[in-house]
Amino acid sequence: MKSMIKLVVVCCVLTALSAVRVNAQETLFRSTAIGSTPGQIIGGVLSGGAPWQVTKARISLSKDGELEVSLRGLVLVSTGVSPVSQIAASLVCGGSGGAVAATTDAFALSTDGNSEFEQQITLPSTCLAPVVIVRAVGANGPGAFIAATGFNATTDSSGN
After folding, report:
1. For 14-31, what is each residue's pLDDT tens digit?
2. Cβ(109)–Cβ(74) under 8 Å?
3. How far is C-alpha 155 from the chain's CA centre?
4. Mean pLDDT of the 36-56 span
5. 47 forms bridges with which residues in the sheet?
6. Is the Cβ–Cβ distance between 7 and 26 less than 8 Å?
7. CATH code of the domain occupying 26-149
8. Domain range summary for the chain, segments of one domain joined by +
9. How many whole angstroms separate alpha carbon 114 and alpha carbon 121?
10. Comparing 17 with 100, which gets the higher pLDDT?
11. Contact 52/81 with Cβ under 8 angstroms?
12. Nearest Cα to 49, choosing from 83, 20, 19?
């Protein structure tokens, strides 16, 4: 009987821990991404000086502030390669006229435009019209954005 009670208690504890893990990873925001075009401004950040494209992207933000970014084929339209070797992601609240609320550290971007990273960011208490912008990182830190969450009506959700 005691071993049965122990088994029930262990099962309850494991179920509770699973629920906590699921709750901590609740997704607040999930999107694909598109490349930038010159002359755009989002959250006070200017886009890069040349058009960029994204083959496939997945960006999500969890309730606990875990920002996950997966990019494939983030390259210049003109050359098909990325001259940028480091990127960061910024959460913008308030849409294109909003402001940057948080930015990740710099992460590597391959010449074929691939990068995958996740980092905890501090979330504001509210964020109306969230946008995540992917920014080129140089000697002075994050600069122009080269991609942003959104979609291109000529591609499907997988980037094809």
Report:
1. 444 444 444 456 999 999
2. yes
3. 19
4. 97
5. 145
6. no
7. 2.60.40
8. 26-149
9. 22
10. 100
11. no
12. 83
How far from chain centre, in Å, is Cα 54? 13
Residue with tokens 């755009």: 40
Q: Which one, of 83, 74, 92, lies nearest residue 129 by Cα? A: 92
Query: Tokens in use for 159?
Result: 């980037």
Maximum pairwise Cα distance, the chain? 72
Look up the pTM and report it.
0.82
Q: Which structure tokens are listed for 1?
A: 């009987």
Under DSSP, the state recorded for 150 is -
Is pLDDT above 50 for 154?
A: yes
The token duo for 87 is 């990127």
Which of 73, 72, 59 minimizes the C-alpha distance to 121? Answer: 59
Contact 68, 120 (CB under 8 A): no
Question: Residue 49 gets which letter from DSSP?
Answer: S
Instruction: Select from 64, 75, 67, 153 the least CA-distant residue to 113.
Output: 75
Q: What pLDDT digit, counting tens, does each position of 114-136 carry? A: 999 999 999 999 999 999 999 99
